[in-house]
Amino acid sequence: MANSNSSSLTPIFFILNGVPGLEASHKWISLPFCSMYLIAVLGNSGLLYLIHHEESLHRPMYYFLALLSFTDVALCTTTVPNMLCIFWFNLKEITFNACLVQMFFVHMLTGMESGVLMLMALDRYVAICYPLRYTTILTNSIIAKAGFITFLRGVMLIIPFTFLSKRLPYCQGNIIPHTYCDHMSVAKVSCGNVKINAIYGLMVALLIGVFDICCISVSYTMILRAVVSLSSADARHKAFSTCTSHICAIVITYVPAFFTFFTHRFGGHTIPHHIHIIVANLYLLLPPTMNPIVYGVKTKQIREGVIKLLFGEKGFLV
């Protein structure tokens, strides 16, 4: 440990313990996580290439999907390689500053993912409620500005996490019972008062997660009203089927996210710690793994685009 000033102690490094209680099974635990990571990187990279390559997919919906895929690859790459080093080679040390950097990117990118899902809900709202004005409302300029604002929101709200964590005294050890550095896991190692950290973390959850979910809920309420008002059952089915992949992505993202958030704050004594750690890792890995699969299966244009690229068939995309 090294003195940063007379009143606080800053560790030179932290030790990430992996999954506490299951150290003997680390290599077995690593297998599904490694497989999911490979699927996530290959699947999302494939989506990015397909959207870039196929002019028929140069539409607002697929631009937002490309942004989601890029965010997903960056998110799981921030944590999984380091996690596998812990599981495979027992390399548990991470420098204090590297831990803060990892913490920033984990929270910033999860906030970015939530924001992109919200933008995709607004995209579906405009597409279904204002189909004739879809391309004039969601221009490339608007899409770029929306993406930048979502990125900027994440950066501005998450930067304080690093300063709030850096100011804490770490005088009772440097062992983090986790596979990566996140805000509350680092704060709980401190022997100082973490009330400000907890309050600010809750504020960020409200400003990002709750705000995005409210926007998504309002968008889908308006979509349901528009779909129900359609006279044809076939038209209703066709309109709502364009939303099914996005709804799946929302469920895959927010269910483990809420579980992780609430167990961190309210379920620490009732849920085994190793369950919390495993779910926290799934929270970062499951959406990047499943999103390209869901969109590939549920979205006709992407499915046919893959066939066209693989087999050179013409005239599939509409």
Low-confidence stretches: 1-8
The helix-and-strand class reads: mainly alpha
Rg: 21 Å
Largest sheet: 3 strands, mixed
Order of helices and strands: EEEHHEHHHEHHHHHH
Q: Please report which band the strand proportion falls in: under 5%, 5-15%, 15-25%, 25-35%, 35-45% or over 45%.
A: under 5%
Task: Record the SSE blueprint.
Layout: E1 2-3, E2 9-10, E3 13-16, H1 26-53, H2 60-89, E4 93-95, H3 96-129, H4 134-137, H5 140-166, E5 175-176, H6 183-187, H7 195-228, H8 233-241, H9 244-265, H10 273-298, H11 300-311
Parallel strand pairs: 3-5
Antiparallel strand pairs: 1-2, 3-4
Helix pairs in contact: 1-2, 1-10, 2-3, 2-10, 3-5, 3-7, 3-9, 5-7, 7-8, 9-10, 10-11
What labels describe this entry?
mainly alpha, 3-stranded mixed β-sheet, two-stranded antiparallel ribbon, disordered N terminus
What does this structure look like?
This protein is mostly helical and 318 residues long. It is 73% helix and 4% strand. It has a three-stranded mixed sheet with strand order 4-3-5. Strand 1 (2-3) and strand 2 (9-10) form a beta hairpin. Mean pLDDT is 89; it is low at 1-8.
Quick structural gist:
The chain is mainly alpha-helical and 318 residues long.
